[in-house]
From TrEMBL:
Pfam families associated with the record: LptC
GO cellular component labels: outer membrane-bounded periplasmic space; plasma membrane
UniProt GO MF annotations: glycolipid transfer activity; homoserine dehydrogenase activity; lipopolysaccharide transmembrane transporter activity
Catalytic activity, EC: 1.1.1.3
Record-given protein name: Homoserine dehydrogenase
Xref: InterPro entries: LipoPS_assembly_LptC-rel, LPS_export_LptC, LptC
Record keywords, A-Z: Cell inner membrane, Cell membrane, Membrane, Oxidoreductase, Transmembrane, Transmembrane helix
Domain of life: Bacteria
Keyword NADP recorded: no
Length: 382
């Protein structure tokens, strides 16, 4: 206790205030000040207090630690009431538990310990979920439990890496928000997301956005799938992406373009599922097929459509209507059932029945029925 009183008297009131705020006192359990016994506090003529190899800490009114850091050097300027730190390493707490382990080359403490600024070579690790945050500058607000990065940020967790121009990490929700030129890359699945705003719920492994978003999936360096939409939710545990509005999906192999209002994409199985009206366009043969409920298995090159299906040959104008349709893309064969209507322009005629099978690109469709007299042909002369 005598050492603390002597220190207060010798360094002046302003420096003593800093020591009280930062917890550098031998009377405050459980962590006494960690000042190297061979290096005493130094007072310069300008009134600056310099501490070498010190431990600084801040507690809440209940006595629980808010943060505790070790520094190689701490410099306090009395008139500015700012502590400048060098070679920082320490812990950030929440309700008495460590929520971030941080290190940085430089830093500053403001507002009586209620705000900490870290600079240069920053690494922040959340030990609860193993997420890692890197940034050139981070501002920590202990009361709010928020870590803010205004000058670029990178987050990493379980083979996923996300970068943006700025971001913030909420330690209470374990949620990372990124804004500005956001790029998220999943290394194991080779999926890349691009958007302007992203929310990453790290424990749940869920990423969501309400902005325009693009997903690319690669094989080697070639994009084989590209999806765009307004809003989406990436559930990494399920290997799927839920896309909200204005969906556009372009596949390199098979050559397809799919559009609709909502869909679920399983990127591992390369399947797209939707219970909303969806259009599939095979642009090489100019074939368009639309259904109200759709499952597209791109790996197997097959599509299932039902609840009202319409197929069109864009080159010839031939049209096929049915309740259910299976499109085998490799064989270019369609198999349809239920309320069949086939319309052809050259020559112009209609066929109706129960079932249909054939190829739309060359107008080779056979319509059949369970009873022969139910097949109706209508021919329209010129």
């Amino acid at each position: 206790m005598r050492q603390r009183l002597q220190l207060k008297l010798s360094i002046g009131r302003g420096a003593a205030l800093l020591i009280g705020l930062l917890g550098l006192t031998a009377c405050q359990p459980p962590d006494p000040p960690k000042i190297s016994p061979t290096e005493s506090p130094k007072i310069e003529e300008t009134g600056r207090l310099i501490l070498n190899n010190a431990t600084l800490e801040q507690a809440n009114p209940s006595g629980q630690p808010l943060w505790k850091i070790q520094v190689k050097k701490a410099t306090y300027t009395q008139d500015q009431k700012i502590a400048r730190l060098e070679n920082i390493k320490g812990n950030i707490y929440q309700e008495g538990k460590v929520v971030l382990q941080v290190s940085a080359d430089r830093g500053e403490v403001y507002k009586e310990g209620q705000e900490i600024l870290l600079k240069d070579n920053i690494v922040a690790v959340d030990p609860r979920n193993k997420a890692i945050i890197n940034a050139p500058e981070l501002r920590w607000l202990p009361k709010e439990g928020i870590l803010i990065s205004p000058k670029g940020i990178k987050g990493s967790h379980l083979q996923l890496e996300a970068k943006a121009r700025q971001g913030r990490y909420d330690t209470r929700q374990e949620k990372l928000e990124l804004q500005g030129q956001v790029v998220a890359t999943a290394k194991e699945s080779r999926v890349v997301l691009q958007t302007e705003r992203l929310y990453w719920e790290i424990p749940q492994q869920v990423i969501s956005t309400d902005q325009k978003v693009a997903f690319d999936r690669y094989i080697n360096k070639t994009i084989i799938d590209r999806l765009t939409a307004i809003g989406g939710r990436w559930e990494r545990k399920n290997n799927q992406v839920i896309l909200q509005e204005n969906l556009e999906y372009r596949s390199l192999e098979p050559p397809l373009q799919i559009s609709g209002s909502q869909a679920i994409w399983n990127y591992q199985n390369r399947t797209l599922t939707s219970d909303r009206p969806t259009e599939i366009f095979q642009y090489q043969d100019q074939i368009t097929i639309t259904g109200n409920r759709v499952v597209v298995e791109l790996g197997n090159r097959i599509a299932y459509l039902k609840d009202g299906v319409k197929g069109i040959n864009q080159k010839t104008g031939a049209q096929l209507y049915s309740q259910i349709l299976t499109w085998k893309m490799s064989e270019k064969i369609v198999e349809a059932e239920g309320n069949i209507i086939y319309e052809q322009q050259e020559p112009k005629f209609n066929l109706t029945g129960d079932k249909a099978i054939g190829t739309l690109e060359d107008n080779n469709i056979v319509v059949t029925s369970s009873s022969p007299d139910r097949v109706v042909t209508e021919i329209y002369p010129r």
